[in-house]
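Reviewers of the previous submission asked for a worked example of the structure-prediction workflow described in the proposal, so we include one complete record here. The input consisted solely of the amino acid sequence. No template or homolog information was supplied to the procedure at any stage.
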Amino acid sequence: MSVKRTLFTVGPVEVRKEVLDAMTRPMITHRSKDYEKLQEGIVEKLHQTLDTDMQIIMSPSSASGLLEACVRNGVKRRMMGLSNGSFGDRWQSIGEENGKEVVKVNGEWGKALRPDDMLSHLDASVEAITVVANESSTGVLNPVKDIAKAARKENDALVFVDGVTAVYGTDLKIDDLGIDALVFGTQKALALPPGLAIMCLSDRLLEKAKEVPYRGYYFDLLQMKKMADKHYSLTTPPVSLMYALDFQLDRILEEGVQARYRRHREMGDLVRRWASERLGLFAEPGFYSDTITVIDRKGLDFSKLNKGLKEKGYEISNGYGAIKETTFRIGHMGDLTVDEIKGLLEAMDEVMEAM
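From that input alone, the workflow returned the following structure tokens.
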């Protein structure tokens, strides 16, 4: 008989039974009054929990789809891609694959990006800047506000942020960032199954999209916004997943958004303390992620460690990208609790001792 495992992974993350149960409500059609009411309620709760006045649209895709939408709708010719890890690199690739000229600004993995990294490369021809808030290959939380502020001072470029492993785990103070898009998905700190992407976007981005040709169909923000204004989705939405999102947003409101952020910080602190004493942290101090910790292996056999953990009912994540063989990652986000983190760390000590 297989052991029930709790996921301490980077995503998809652990999803509670009651959240999965919310997906079993009877199906409705996505052009009905019932659906309209469902989507309207969800968007209202997203505004409330995220504490933002930015416009919100949803897409039946992974977050990568909406990262592509930023590029397709916000860039005619030239963009700048800031990167200090795998997911920053991916956004640069998305730009190139969509035929855009990409000014690549690559920082050191494990170190946070600084405004100075981009300023010497920034000129009037750059229409948009992409940056990852929480780089999940390295465990670095980048200073997005400083970067966006510096970009605005220098140039009128749009600023697009990948918030995939930051939103609902870290208080980004979205309306203070001065950005034009913030993209995230359901399968990370929202603690839902994958399949739905969400974007907070600015009027500036929608205005820019009117000038950009060949935006495609599936990710045309103007068409998506037109439907969103009527509380509908441009294409068929994952209705069952939206039931779960509606349910989960109620739970987040019940817990209290600030309490949720504090819980993530406390879980992160526990993991970082453990890792500092045993092995070592990959990310630069002062820029630690509160949703993911990337730990130096120091020669530790990760497959043996994870196998031992799985036998005890726990699962963590391997390293990613260029540092896959030298690090491993622990996800501490979503609905996980401080006590569950303590249980994981005790189990890790036991497995490592036995190794």
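The chain has two domains: 6-14+256-354, 18-253. We consider this example representative of the routine output the project will generate in years two and three.
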